[in-house]
Model the fold of this input.
Amino acid sequence: MCLILFAHKVHPDFPLVLAANRDESYARPTQAASFWRDYPQIYAGRDLEMGGTWLGIARNGRLAAITNFRDANAAKTSQRTRGELVSNFLRGSQGPAEFANRVKRDGHNYNGFNLLTSDLHDLWWYSNRSKTRQPQKLKPGLYGLSNALLDTPWPKVRSRVGALCEVLAADRGQLASSPEPYLQLLAEDRQAIQRDEDPQAGEMGQQAAQPRHQHQRGCERKQRGTGMHQPGAAMPSHETVDQHRPAEIGHAEQQADTAEARHGQLEMFLEHERAHLLQ
Done:
């Protein structure tokens, strides 16, 4: 099963934390994630059979991801490839809301899917198999998306969202250089439960599971500014730096206090999420 775990505007240092895996036949030719030669602003894997992708980011902060909706009886071989929805958003200029509403009009041309689109500010979800068939702007929270609707409570989705909760609580920014804890969320050596073995799989997947409002092996993050010196700006002299050092130290201490408070808020939020997941 495909799986996308993401935390939207939850972590104080990362507006979006996303970890995802793609479940696909080994026989389907695939290019590993890299910058595309024909669209150098896009970083993504590529489906060499149909030309689209399942997850990607662009230099301007755009991100998109897709999962197939599991409904073998309704699948049609004549439909357009769903991977083009991701690549079209990444190389386009429409905002997430505008693009999702455009896809809504053309959704009947594709087999079932879940689509996530984001810029530096907003995150939208749309599925052409939801009951409302309406795109939804997602509120800050933790989410899990597999081959049913968003937050459908399949056991693996619930389990991994709970694990994401724990990794986020431990991440105070140091994992930016080593995302392995997030990648480990996707590790699974047990065979997925089949539809006829899981009473939730057939029924839950058809329900419009509304996103919670409070709440390839790859991990991608869209981070706020790094504080690096901008090209073209005048570098301060040593004298200027020394003159302002006491003020800078005080500012750094204030920033540390603010960061600690923000992480405290994160921990309170995640404690609420733990309680919800145990219900």
About this structure: Confidence is low (pLDDT under 50) at residues 195-256. The chain has seven helices and eleven strands.
